[in-house]
Fold this protein.
Amino acid sequence: MLFGITGCGVDDPGHSLVQQSIEVHGGDRFEEAEIRFGFRGQPFAVIRQGGRFHYERSYEEEGVRIREWMTNDQTRRMVDGEPVTLDEEGRARVELDLNSVVYFALLPFRLMDPAVRHRELAPTDIEGEPYRVVEVTFQREGGGEDWEDRFVYWFHADDHTLDFMAYRYDRGDGGTRFRRAVNRREVGELLLQDYENFTANEGIEDIVDYPLLLAEGRLELVSMVEMEDVAVLPPPSLPLDGPVGVGEASDEGVELIVGMERLEYEPGEAVRVALQLANRLDRERVLHFRSGQRYDLVVFAEDDSEVFRWSDERSFTQALGQVQLGPGDDGPMWEEEIPAPEAPGQYRLRATVTADDTDLVAEVPLEVR
């Protein structure tokens, strides 16, 4: 997970201001939650639990359904349910697209990431209210593709809320933006907000001067940055602490969560796997099965060849069955042990729910050393 501070001591005023604001906006609740929201028509899921994270979005492009996600261990893309191999540029693009939305949508929580450097600037007043000001820059290592960008945040001196922010970016033609927090609301013990997104009608030399242009009416509203249909839920209740993967049904309401004890195994070692169903809908969902089989586990090598299938040496009753999931409820949890491949290398474990009327697939990485 992205914890800690590099380059800032705990007594640093900028560090303390950010920490104070995070506490006001929900504090540790953010570190143990599943947050779902829509952004510009795309559903996003953010899961943070016990030092693990999973960021995901899904969307359609030219009639093709695409899922993209990143975790502590992997960055993946699936097109119409099939995995796509990502090169370095493709991985960077997926990570940038996910991180940029999650970072801004869930401020100020990400302002304590390891590569962040804080510096308190001179206090100021905006619209008659007192503010303390923090500049945020990033170390190159761990700071992402846009590590040279510069941000300034205005925290209310009394309430400690994050009310305004400005940033300068170099991507594309470069530029600056200024945002004002609006529609602040509490959802699941988190204080979340949207933003009005402004730019200067004229060039601006230093983004710290944006409040002066706001007061003079010299800013242009270019867009709204809004989270839609926000839900804050408990994180998955898997009993294992290793890599976690999440798969979602095509109606975007039922999840399959799969996890392992750890990422690395010795050749042939037993791998404990846990699977959990969760209904994120506000209505009951029933999954129908043609046999006694409820799931399958398949291990793939780096070249996508299949090296193990859990169901191959098993027989299942041919009786029809079903699993009922109440509104907002967790469904059954299953645990299995499978053998790690004998050959050292990088693998992926795919878990599939074998229901007739839905497509639930989740993947986690697996390494043999």
Observations:
- The chain has two domains: 13-232, 236-368.
